[in-house]
Amino acid sequence: MRLTDLNSAQDIGANCLLGEIGSFNFLVDAGMHPKRIGNDALPRLNHLPPLDFVLLTHCHLDHIGGLPVVLRKQPGVEILCSPASAIIAKRILRNSVSVMTRQRDEAGIKAYPLFTYGELDPVERALHPLPLLSTRTVRNADGDEINITLYPAGHVAGAVGCLFEYKHRKIFFTGDVLFKDQQTVPAAQFPSGPVDTLVTETTHGATPVQDGVTRAGETERLLETINHTITHGGSVLIPTFAFGRMQEILTILNEARRRNAITTCPIFCSGLGVDLADYLDMMSRKAGFVNFRRQVLQELKVQPLSQRFVAPGHDLPEKGIYVLSSGMLVENTPAWRIAANLLEHARNTICFVGYCDPDTPGGRLLARKRGDTFLFQGLDYIATIKAHIERFYFSGHATRDELMDFARQCDPRAIVITHGDPDARAWFEEELAIELPHAKVTNPDPGKAYQI
Ligand SMILES: [Zn+2]
Ligand SMILES: [Zn+2]
Fold first, then answer.
1. Fewer CB atoms inside 10 A, N or C side of the chain?
2. 394 C-alpha to center of ligand 1: Å?
3. Whether 375 and 227 share a structural domain
4. Which residue segment(s) compose the domain that 44 sits in?
5. CA 194 to the chain's CA centroid
6. Using CA atoms, how far apart are residues 146 and 140, in angstroms rounded to an integer?
7. In total, how many domains does the chain have?
8. Distance (Å) from CA 351 to ligand 2 centroid
9. 245-258 vs 271-286: helix crossing angle, rounded to 10
10. pTM over 0.85
């Protein structure tokens, strides 16, 4: 097989791998880079061969955000995905169009939006859901055949890893994977047999596992922090990603409510995550491998965020738990606005429950100490940090040790490392050379074709 990484750098960016095997040409994902702007955010899609299909591992924007552009270039190409991803794909892309349109208006980025609402209908029509854990044979115009099996990958609702079998060769793509149960998504169920080629994510390659940190422990610590803050007259802000993490946090709060483990108080949520709760409910009922009921919002008596703007620095009229997007506290989002109300009061707490890039407001806030100042650009407001800032570990990605265990179990002749920053990839290159010395390890240069 020939494999080309079409992401523009060796990082977690616009994920897009071109596979060529026999007469088949296919993409695994076509994402949008979260940190690049305009057309630079897209993978290198200019010289694609005619594609037989695109395999979509899941609906995070760094995997799906370039798909409409692929469809524009090659109308009618089929997108193979999980049944759950087929339910939510268009909704995620619709949000991306509205975010890009806002960025064009606010920041003058003329290239935005990179695709239009009208271009999402062809994407929706091209989606071809495959049942999980069941092998499908795909034939192309040359009569060539490839077998495809999707495996649940944990990570986020609808995420899959994919096994390609072509003339006795087995190639497995992990996609983004989590080997542990989350509240709303069960752990990955990957194949147990050997494969010839393993294409693995490496997100946490530079992150050693912290001793004693477990999901259950972090859940209890989060609940204790909330209870302490609320009983001392403060409010809690939990900035979350709208797709997946917000619904997980709401499920955690509801479980705690059922067992009287949380102090009663109002709970507020913002737009997109609430809307996506309907989609996760549908994924749960119709697609499987997702456990979320929209009822959770009613049981928690979740209230919408008031549209009335409270000036920065002034505490909110209602104390409570604010579960709001965005997870990284990006400017002009509900979480960022509410942070400007809570940060200067010592009784409040901001609980980060996901990854924050150091270049985002969330990352910058985590790097500061109590008593430091923090600028809310655009609000023209500088806060002195007095609220408690807490970090909780609810990662959606496997630990590096779990990924090494899976690689050992696959016993591949070739390993391709993807979806990691340079230091994460370097750790895997070193470790794999020691642990699997017979395997050829490739850390692909962007745009270069490798015979794997
Ligand atoms: Zn992902
Ligand atoms: Zn990803």
1. N
2. 14
3. yes
4. 2-207+396-451
5. 28
6. 9
7. 2
8. 23
9. 80
10. yes
